[in-house]
Specification:
eight-stranded antiparallel β-sheet; Rossmann fold; alpha/beta; about 25% strand; 3 domains; single chain; about 600 residues; binds 6-O-phosphono-alpha-D-glucopyranose; Glutamine Phosphoribosylpyrophosphate, subunit 1, domain 1
């Protein structure tokens, strides 16, 4: 949460920072701001989206070759102009942007108030900045030294970038827990929370590690640890094209990303799955094949949509690999002092690779000796780097705040891991294994078939858009899909929605059913189908509106339902990759019909880098 951008070089800094902030807006959009260093230090900031800031700055002299910018997801202090970043230190000489949370800020604030500091905002950031300024003044040391001293006392997570009026040729940055990428240009440097603001200027980047301080001039990058020892910057080549982070003719990123799924799933399978040869090759998994095969237990940790992918994987692993699987909310797992035994394998699932809870959960488990495998989308992200092994989902940048294409790519990876392990363990018959490989290979093309129904789903959305509540029900593999369908609707349209196991519905949610309640059943062909039909009848008997996702060729279910969404036939293990597409489209079109900002839903952020 919160996006940071900075530039130092010979170009105009403001347009680079502004464009970068727009690319990072998915990380938070409560307020934004820039600080530019020309003859003096100027700070401009505004509540609202980056476009609101841009509008207020039209016609102003924004000339500068050094600058920092920030787009905020509020933690300490409501969204407002004065709580927006950058913040200025009390003497007006330093400006700073921050992504993260300073947990001991209240104590530091009290100390600073006693020393005569006054605060203009409610943020933890302004406290850290004045703490640094105070050290600078007392110790008469370089800014990088003051930053190091300050950070040794900080509890929490941060990426910070500072500019100093007295040293206009240097930016100082530091990281712990939140992401920071530095792009290396010719006589210029670009800093950002992820590579998207950097990609059009350079493909050479350095991912800053925790507890590193970067001293950045136009033509020099020095990395040091908090002990003032030089660290070697490790330069990585970005494997990402500019087109991947633009809308490409679609009205919204979310729609583009939903429609990209035939390609993203294909990309995820490409080079790994060979149905003809009957093989699955995943280097980062192959290296841990023995540990997976012999695992006493697999623990999946994740948040949000990634957690739902984990739930589907639980069913798949248990069926194909006959191994005990637990799926944990990372935020709960990390604080629970969980029992981790030798032979446990942890799988962390994360689109961004930066979710703070997931990251700390795996760091803790790693310390206790567990093997950590990451299923991550963003290459080079913190979770990917903390994991021992794993597999990238290769879904490309996901910009829409609500996750879509990352989910189906995660499922593709998890199915491949389960198939691989199950086959090697002998817990899946060769015939089923080979058939599943063939079925999995056919999924991208079947997703294309599902997407062809988008106009029908749009009509459905318009029919049900005024319902105040929705219920989503499913059994088995379809239960997590019900959860994901409900989450998508909540996130995008602000309609209250709940996902439930279809049978469990009788233990509470059935009390909500009346003629106004749409109930979405994920009722594709599987072993539970008859039971789901009984649940449908129970809803119908209470006059609820039944909308169902069914498998083509099912002639019985339509006799019960009010409305239908149809997927092509596939193995029940793979059906979630198809049925979820309809639910993504339904949420999208309801959100649009209600006039919601589907790419940037209120209060949400894509990358939750605070706990
Ligand atoms: C946020 C996003 C969700 C995402 C979740 C987990 O809540 O809005 O779309 O599923 O974080 O993020 P991760 O990057 O770890 O998958």
């Amino acid at each position: 949460m919160c996006g940071i951008v900075a530039y130092i070089g010979s170009r105009e800094a403001y347009p680079i920072i502004l464009k970068g902030l727009k690319r990072l807006e998915y990380r938070g959009y409560d307020s934004s701001g820039v600080a530019l260093l020309n003859s003096g230090l100027k700070v401009y900031k505004k509540k609202g989206k980056v476009a609101d800031l841009e509008e207020t700055l039209i016609g102003k002299d924004m000339h500068a070759n050094v600058g920092i910018g920030h787009t905020r997801w509020a933690t300490h202090g409501e969204p407002s102009d004065c709580n927006a970043h950058p913040h200025m230190s009390q003497n007006g000489k330093l400006a700073m942007i921050h992504n993260g949370i300073i947990e001991n800020y209240a104590q530091l604030k009290t100390e600073l108030i006693k020393k005569g500091y006054e605060f203009k905002s409610d943020t933890d950031t302004e406290v850290l900045l004045n703490f640094i300024e105070n050290i600078l003044q007392n110790n008469n040391c370089p800014l990088e030294e003051a930053v190091r001293i300050a950070l040794k006392r900080i509890v929490g997570a941060y990426v910070i970038v500072l500019i100093d009026q007295d040293n206009p040729d240097t930016l100082i940055a530091a990281r712990k827990g939140s992401p920071l990428v530095i792009g290396i240009g010719k006589g210029e440097h670009f800093l950002a929370s992820d590579a998207s603001p950097i990609i059009e200027y350079t493909k050479e980047v350095v991912y800053v590690n925790d507890y590193e301080v970067a001293i950045i001039k136009s033509d020099e990058l020095i990395l040091k640890n908090l002990g003032n020892e030089r660290q070697t910057p490790y330069i990585t080549k970005l494997d990402m094209e500019l087109a991947a982070i633009e809308k490409g003719g679609y009205e919204h990123f979310m729609l583009k990303e939903i429609f990209e799924q035939p390609t993203t799933i294909f990309d995820c399978l490409r080079g790994r799955l060979d149905a003809h040869a009957g093989t699955i090759t995943m280097k980062g998994i192959d290296e841990y094949a023995e540990e997976l095969k012999n695992a006493n237990r697999i623990v999946i940790v994740a948040c949000g949509t990634s957690w739902h992918a984990g739930l589907v994987a639980e069913y798949i692993f248990e069926e194909l690999c006959r191994v005990n699987v637990e799926v944990e909310y990372a935020s709960e797992f990390r604080y629970r002092n969980p029992v981790i035994n030798k032979g446990d394998v942890i799988i962390a699932i994360s689109q961004s690779g930066e979710t703070a809870d997931t990251l700390v959960a795996i760091e803790n488990a790693k310390e206790k000796g567990a093997i950590i495998l990451g299923v991550v989308n963003v290459v080079g992200s913190s979770i990917a780097r903390t994991s021992h092994g794993g597999a990238y989902t290769h879904a490309g940048p996901e910009i829409g705040v609500a996750s879509t294409k990352a989910f189906t790519a995660q499922l593709a990876i998890l199915v491949m891991i389960a198939l691989k392990v199950g086959f090697e363990k002998g817990t899946i018959e060769e015939k089923r294994y080979r058939q599943l490989l063939i079925d999995l290979e056919a999924i991208p093309q079947k997703v294309e078939v599902v997407l062809k129904d988008h106009e029908k789903i749009k009509a459905l959305a318009e029919k049900y858009m005024d319902a105040p509540d929705f219920l989503y029900l499913g059994r088995g593999y379809n239960f997590p899909v019900a959860l994901e369908g409900a989450l998508k609707l909540k996130e995008i349209s602000y309609i209250h929605a709940e996902g439930y196991p279809a049978a469990e519905m009788k233990h509470g949610p059935i009390a909500l059913v009346d003629e106004k309640l749409p109930v979405v059943f994920i009722a594709t062909k599987d072993v539970y189908h008859q039971k789901v039909l009984s649940n449908m009848q129970e809803i119908k008997a209470r006059k609820g509106k039944v909308i169902a996702v069914i498998t083509e060729g099912d002639t019985h279910t339509p006799t019960i339902t009010n409305d239908l969404m149809i997927i092509p036939e596939t193995d029940e293990i793979l059906a979630p990759m198809l049925s979820v597409i309809h639910l993504q489209l339904l949420a999208y079109y309801i959100g649009i019909a209600k006039g919601c900002d589907v790419d940037k839903p209120r209060n949400l952020a894509k990358s939750v880098t605070v706990e």
